[in-house]
Amino acid sequence: MTSTPLIDCSHVSCTYGNAPVVDDVYLQINRGEFVGIVGPSGSGKTTLLNAIMGAHPVAHGTITLQPNLTIGYVPQVETVDWYFPVTVEEVIVMTRTKSSWWPRITASERNAVREVLGQLGIADVAHRHIRELSGGQQQRVFLARAMFSQPDILIMDEPTSGVDVRTRHEILHLLADLHEKGLTILLTTHDLNGLAAHLPRLVCFNKKVIADGNPRQVLTPQVLEQTYGAPMDVLEHGGMPLVVDHGRVAMRGEGK
Amino acid sequence: MILAIDLMEPYGFQFFRHGLVVATIAGALCGLLGVFVVLRGMSYIGHGLSHAVFGGAAASAVLRINYFLGAGVWGIISGLLIARVARRRVLGADAAIGVVTTASFALGLALMNRYGQAGKSIEAVLFGSVLGVQMVDIYAVSGVALLGLVVVVLGYRRLLFSTFDRDVAQVSGVNVSAVEAGLLAMLSITILVTMRVIGTLLISALLVIPAASARMTTNSFARMLWISPIIGASTCFVGMNLSYFLNTSASATIILLDALVFVIVYAVAGTRNRMKMASLGHI
Lengths: 256, 283
What we know:
A: alpha/beta; six-stranded mixed sheet; globular; B: ABC transporter involved in vitamin B12 uptake, BtuC; 13 helices; transmembrane helix (chain B); membrane (chain B)
């Protein structure tokens, strides 16, 4: 028996003006999956996510979401105004726009915030200003906001963009834990070795789906060159694919 | 005792009492809405919209139609036009404000030149005048203040979400365009009912300075929504009284007092809080 996919993109195309940015994409995301979309800057990854969430119009094709699908969205933390006067608690509760109009945070909301923060290991930061947190804590706060609505699927745009190695490890482990608990996750990333290679399913994307499968299947020199338009080598390290781009090798060679 | 009698002297005049009530409520109202203006990086909007409403005020005076009706409709249309132009991201909100409001202001000036009879009332709109405040102004500003309070209370979460994180609010089901259009309409109405006391040229200061001062005193959005109206109302109240004794323009005195509060808060807040001001670079 096959279950209905949570997200079903069929021949989806999106444009900015007349310029196509997503071209004839076919992609299904099933319950319980952990999927990463990789591709160069400007390849249409974020546009595809926006189209799935209804924030960008679909020019051709259809996107079918499972009825009553709840999406938790985590934007790139680099887009956040960290000086905005809000505490962690206010950030998380602000998403409750439909169930409550009352401005004050209620006792039950406060408890729910503590619970979700506790799940993510930052229970003690509820009353702190978002600026006062470390990089890993900041990413967790926005993850907590997405989790607050108890979503069926978590959609994240570049969750490791602009974070240090330690924070990247924290995020990766956190997402693996959430996935293990049954949460479906769809994310975009530039980070081929630090994040993409660790995921169970990877989609190489440049306006269209170039390859779709597990990292061992899709992280090949041919697929990567087709995706990024630049030659890359793939080595194996600790049983996992390790992508080395020729630019880095050339730089090192020149240094010698 | 003599001091108390002296201080009460302006209260013997009805025009002063009316002006004081309108200015104090206007200060609170502008302080409240100013929080969104400042945090959304729209400090220029108050300046722009007040100029746009001036066009409507001039047209109303020339065409001899009700000021609130003419300038109000004009202001709301200008606000919606700005929102419409700014939504096409090719132009930023600042460019949209610049185009729409300066055109409206220019039209007002052209009407003044062509049909110069309306000079006195238009001058009052430009620089404000407590002398011209009537009961209808008190009712109007009180009604709009009440409306503003209801809008902010009922729409608090949507306003906060779309101000803090526009894109995520949109994908989370908040009708961000409607929120922004509503906010601009609210600002237009606020400017309409306050500009006869404060004046077109200085009203933007009332929308920006109390909120900017409040921002430096707190890291909480909710508290900022209390502090900013309190600063706005207090400076208007004290400024009105001072202007009587100093024999200076009420609007100028109010704005100078606001600026003084800003300087004091800035100095007291110190280096740590000055860091927060990085987010207010647009002011």
